[in-house]
Amino acid sequence: MNAYDGQDAPSGEARNEITQMEASFVRLTNAIAERESRLVALNETAIGARREAEKANKSKSTLLAAASHDLRQPIHAMGLLIGGIDRKALPARSRETVDHLAVLMQETVGLFNSILDMSKLEAGTFTAKQVPVDLVALFSRIEAEISPRAQNTGALIKVEMPRDRTFVQGDENALYRILSNLLVNAIEYAQEGAIELRTENKGKVCTLIVADKGPGLNMNALDASGSDYRSDLKGYGLGLSISFALAAAMKSELTFTSPESGGTQFSLSLQTCEPPVEEAGNDLTSSRLRKHVSGLKIIFLEDSADVHAATLEGLKQLGCSVAAFTSPEQARRAIRNARAPFVLITDLDLGRGHSAGNVIEEALARTPHLISVIITTATRLEANNQWVEHEKIHFIEKPFSIGRLASLIRFVAR
Length: 414
Description:
elongated
């Protein structure tokens, strides 16, 4: 008996149709299997390419971090040496040349810092802190550094200090960089117009505002939000893109508007908070300590001869009592023998693979006498995470001016 007993057997034509359908099904199944195999292969290739890209990105960041120290050292030394020239003793024409060199050095410093910042942000190695930031102290530092630059261009900087001693939750160094970038950008584009730095408080939110009367941004080409530092900001300077990225890293948002009166207004809103416990009860009389650091004991460690000499001269001009060393062991011995409050200023990379780690740890162990540690570095990528979070440790990235270092010393000595 066969399958068709009792039933009509399919005709020859029907059997051919069935055979063709079976063949088509087999071809379709094979095609699907082949496409699945291709997709799996493509996916594996994509995963491999992504891993290679991530590895290359990490290698790029590591290379940049390693190279930046060597690149920054001569630039840093030149900036310190130019800053240490007594302009009053020079003829008018030489003074103009030195002033022009100083401006060019500032631009070079800004470019170095911007490139390194963007590299850290793209590599995901930057982590924003969320700690109380004293806006009066922050605005004072910014005013001290930015005002001379504005005067050279004829721009007028108006810094309106918060009426009360306002603290906001954020990353002090990121805020410093954001506001500095915005003000420098305004100086460049506002020319001789007025530039304002102020705050507006509403409830538990404090908005930091930088406004200028310049030509403004092209609002047709941009949105009023740039949390992802979009590519359309590149024509407005790297510093502006970095400002948006740093704001996003702090879980905040930097926005801008173009008022009818002209110019551009940038706004960054942050939550206000209580001052740190050790700050409670302090009043603004401590501000005089920020201005006068004469006699402040400093232990200074720097292995580069040019940077060492230029920085030492600048610290002496501030009236500080400086014990300067090029050897880590010498600095550690001085820290152990310290019997009075001191500030440690040290380069992080001491050359030939040596780090200031032991020196910094030695200082931190001397808590009763240690005021603060200022780490000068080309990058924080290799810094101990515990240092980044430590309340007594501050970083200042090379290249920097003596004026900026002085501002930080005044800040930590408050």
